[in-house]
Amino acid sequence: MYKLLILAYLIGQDPSSTMQTFQLDQEFRTMEECKKELLLKDPDRGTYDVLWDFVNKMNFEYDWLAAGCQNADATEEFVIEPDYPKGKPKELQGIDIIPGLKI
Which of 2, 73, 75, 80 is deepest in the core (most CB within 10 A)? Predict the structure, then answer.
């Protein structure tokens, strides 16, 4: 089984001390099913549906740093990262939260 995970932090606070991993309730039989759900985009907003829903459900208190699909034993994963077309939020500038991520 594959699960969808979102790494998020409290907006306006230090990401390294407030980041948490959230697991969505839905599970998927294959990586392709999970990726399909993760990559669905709203054509008007240009945002990922799953992440827009997550931010809304969290009352805009959290923003995401990375999201992805992972199998049960964590040997297979697919990760996406946010783009910041208007520039990174102030609390993310100049810090490397997770080695290998390009945030």
Answer: 2
